[in-house]
User: Fold this.
Amino acid sequence: MNTNNLRTGIALPGRWKVLIPAGAAAVLLLVSLVSCGQTIQPGNVGVKIRTLGPNAGVDKTPLPSGWHLNLPGERIAEFPVIQRTYTYTREQDERGPENEEVTFSDNNALPMTADVQLVMRIDPSKAPALYTRYRLTFDQLFEGPIRNDVRSSIAAETELVSVEYLYRGGRQQVIQKALARVNRKWEAQGVNISQLDWIGTIRYPQVILDSIQAKTKADADASAAQAQVAVAKAQADALIEQARGQAESNRLLAQSIASSPEVVQLRAIEKWDGKLPTTTGGAVPFIDISKR
Assistant:
């Protein structure tokens, strides 16, 4: 049989009908099917959603990575099943120019903002149930409910402490407590957030920064003054101890002289320069060297 003579008819509006080779029809059918398919990227899991037919709804069986056919009325939502890092920042990022920084306040209602990042993944077995509950794609879920819970968890923890506590190193304890809050809700639903961290520093109000820096300087000055007082006291104590030592030395010397007269004469001899008086009455005078 000569397959080149096989034709397939395609009806057009009116009385026209186009005949094309059967092989070309098969190619067109294949192209049509391919165009209706969707590839789930490695590291993702797919959720099949049907909007037509008796089985309309969310398929409870997750789809592995690879190519999958989408029939009319079907589409696939993808969720990440390997750990990935995502950010909420003030500056433009890969998701667009929107300002997504997190806002919060301390226990005195002082407002602050910060950029944060989180490492998260979806449990593939729970992806269909997650979509069924929220009817959101992963990007919509991440930018909506998850972001709101991250912000509210951070705010709930910062409202328990002062801005000074955050500024002086307490911010790491706060962010870890916020992570625990977020996970208590989302881990049971199949969203595991393994890390939540600040990106850079918290953006404090300038008046708070000025106040903290002034207090820090005052504390430093007070510490320096206390150090100077301590040095002066130490020097004074040293002089007192030196005087006490000299007094004790003199006392012991006087006691020694009183008990041993020979010591007086010995001291006088030690002080004599060996010269006799230049004027005498003829005889060699007696020189009392003990008075020199």
User: Anything to note?
Assistant: The two ends are 152 Å apart (CA to CA).
